[in-house]
Design goal:
- By secondary structure, this protein is mainly alpha-helical.
- About 70% of the residues lie in helices and about 0% in strands.
- The chain is globular.
- One of its GO terms (molecular function) is transmembrane transporter activity.
Length: about 500
Amino acid sequence: MRLSLRHFPCQSRTFGMRNTSGRGLRPDALGTFDTVLMAVAGSAPAYSLAATTAVLVGAVGFAAPAALLYCALPMLGIVLAYGRLGRLDVNAGAAYSWVGRTLHPFLGFLCGWALVVSATLFMVAGSLPAGSLTLALFDPELAEGTWPATAVGAAWFTVMLLVVLGGVRLSVRAQLVVSGVELVLLLLFVLGAVVRGGAAAAFDWSWLGFGHFDGVSGFASGALIAAFYYWGWDVTGNLSEETRDGRRTAGLSALVGVGVVFLLFEAFTIAVNVVLTTEQITARGDADTLALLGDAVWPGIGGKLLVVAVMLSTVATLETTLIQVTRTLFAMGRDRTVPAAFGRVHRRWNTPWVAVAVVGGVALALFVASNALGSVGDVLSGAVGAMGLQIAFYYGLAGLAAVVAYRRLLLSSVRDFLLGGVWPMAGAAFMLWIFYESLAELSTASLVVGLGGLATGLIPMIWYWRRGSSYYRPAKLDAVRALAVETDVPYGDAPRQHRPAADETLATDF
């Protein structure tokens, strides 16, 4: 049998994919289209553009399209890593489980904790703009107030909390409506910008090169912000236990989803360079960037329509973020690395209701606390940098974990070496480099939030390690051992040639 990354076991009691379908979450609830939709919604195209375009342009100027391009390439390496790890271990905890079973349980726990902290920060960074954007549709002056924006944002968050609590099928149905309208509006404005042509500058291919970056530090700053654009596609990994043929579908859906949002991000940042000046973008602020672009492309109603798109995108990604953090906490509770109550599942809705309730309570408390920090913009600006730091941390370790898990198979073919080794390793190195470089670039507030949030995870980690949680004594993920167990071949004697079986075709419902 020829060992290849294309052939993985269906399940194994020791080394292969863990069969978790009987542990509470609803199995086979989602198909390929559903999870692609979740991947796109998780990256929140309109929200990401509105929330961070001004920050990105302020950091790198005309190099914004290049920052998104050069961050997308290593990000695809992380997508490949997630797909390969998911084939060995279908787990709602995703990187939390995979890194723990390949590198070290402590690192795995910190990966999961980084996601929990960054997702919790997003409850503030996302819900407050959702409130202000909703108010802006009716009364722009009222939208400037932090308290009204907090109240409306909390209402949106509560609605999404109830949707997530109601089950994964309800979540997908809501996502289809919300994200569907958002994507239609974005595509219409891309076409409108193309027809309108340039007002601020003519398109230049140098925008996709390195010439507009201010040295290595400028490139690192832009890449850290660009990583925030793509974050969220990995919700497919957290949903793998609830997906049909999750070991294949989750990876495919993430790949397609990242491709879709990459094209949207590039189209819009190029449109911003063409239609708006840098002074216009930075003067109006984050949440107004797309509204300004909408007015320029489609005077009168354009700004309002793009505000609607951003609002819907924010609401959509609140849902996927809630899914990520609650599924991660569910996996942690199941493994007894946090209180076991987090692993409880509602009998009717098959959702981790305790995790949903706790996340909801903490997030609503943060809404109130955020008023003491200043304006909506101040809260958002500090949170974005902190989230990018944590994203780079757990993405980087996940990429490294994939290479370690498949290290014995990488020389099977050139394809396996490049797509299973070089690309994920390059993605991991890039993410960890961003993490290191950004330590000198971020504000003190962002560093305190980012590193301090990670440090708080040491408390439950040490506590449950000392209490003997089995998570800290894992069965290692090893693709060769998993393949040997599946084919009943003694470890070390796995044959070198293999022809794909009939059931190894890629399952899809497209």
